[in-house]
């Protein structure tokens, strides 16, 4: 009886254990970045998120996203995020973050003046109704056991399917680009 009790007390708790790939802070501490929709053959992602610690439970997310997904135009922004549980980062869409972003075409940053004009246009059009909304990215596993990211946004009740993600080393040769490159 005592052996069973000891085994139960010493066994890792399934309730508190977090799978290594779901542990955002742990992966960031290992120097990893998060690639969304990875294509191993072309070493491309539709988004790469780099998290930098900014205090207890806080990160600065530098994210580069492919817009639109079929062309080689990317937008890089920096946003404050808060770790909520081991596998969820939340923050707020802010016009200021967008206006300080960088647009790239084929990996080359736009000159400051056209970059500012394009970002101002995005802020007045696409992002006008998004400013101030809370967004969260939650890591999980799909039914096949693959790592996925589930995005949610305050005020949006639509069904956004989970997207495959992979933790990668920053020097692994991955870029944000269409997969057909």
Automatic annotation (TrEMBL):
| Source organism of this protein record | Novosphingobium organovorum
Q: Which UniProt keywords apply?
A: Signal
Name listed for the protein in its UniProt record: Nuclease
Q: Where is the signal peptide?
A: 1-17
